[in-house]
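Standup notes, structure subgroup. Blocker cleared on the adenosine monophosphate input:
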Amino acid sequence: MFRQSRLWHSQNKSVALVPTMGALHEGHLSLIRLAKKKGDKIVVSIFVNPTQFGPNEDYNSYPRTLNEDFKKCSELGVDAVFLPSVSAMYPDNSSTYVNEEILSQHLCGARRKGHFRGVCTIVLKLFNICAPDIAVFGQKDAQQSLIISQMVRDLNIPVKIIIAPIKREKDGLAMSSRNKYLLPEERRQATAIYNGLQKIKKWQNDNLSVAQVRRKLIRFIQREKDIRIDYVSIVNINTLSEVSRPKKGDKLLIAVAVFFNKARLIDNIVIKW
Ligand code: AMP
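Run returned:
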């Protein structure tokens, strides 16, 4: 992969990387389409990264649909699919990891210990191997995108990070490989996440405080009986720390994580207070 990327560079072609864990859906494909606008050669990596899953998480059951993924990549004219094995990425004696220490304290980082250490480590390794000029990530994983951007600044990594907007199903549910886990009734209830996020504008117009908006959102989502809320947080878009009295015009991230029986889903919107 590295030799191929170096060859492209020697031909004055820029390389754009889209890192994924596979089970590709329209969300991923929108990242690939954006990458094609920004770079000459497109690399999609598919790697279900064991170090970003906790011991009780879904590493083993995570959907793997390689044949369909290849087909989608080839239809979009992807130049290379990078598909490393776990043992190639993590030889038995590997003992170096990358830790972002501030942004990772919040939101998913607080609930999924070690998750972003796994993410940062694998993304830096993918950058070293694929040597991209550009890498595209999704706003769906808002915290991940922010942490990767921070890592790139902190470690002087010569990659331009581009963040693509969230792709949603017709009824608003954010696309995710994990939506496959949902039973039909759960899939119906899952629309409450985005429907709740959409209500925030109205609650803002009613002059509710941040705490009141947050409580309303929690109550709205909890009306669905199979949803268990992991967190509902209203945070500063740059620091990810909780806000209580934002100034008018401040940009806030409203981030939600919920569990159904098997699936953990996340979603977010950015608002101006
Ligand atoms: P994953 O395969 O879930 O690790 O996701 C790979 C990349 O696709 C990440 O940068 C995600 O943020 C992005 N992504 C996943 N779902 C969506 C979506 N619905 N809209 C936009 N980007 C997404």
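Discussed briefly. The domain at 2-164 is CATH 3.40.50.620 (Rossmann fold).
Next: hand off to the docking folks.
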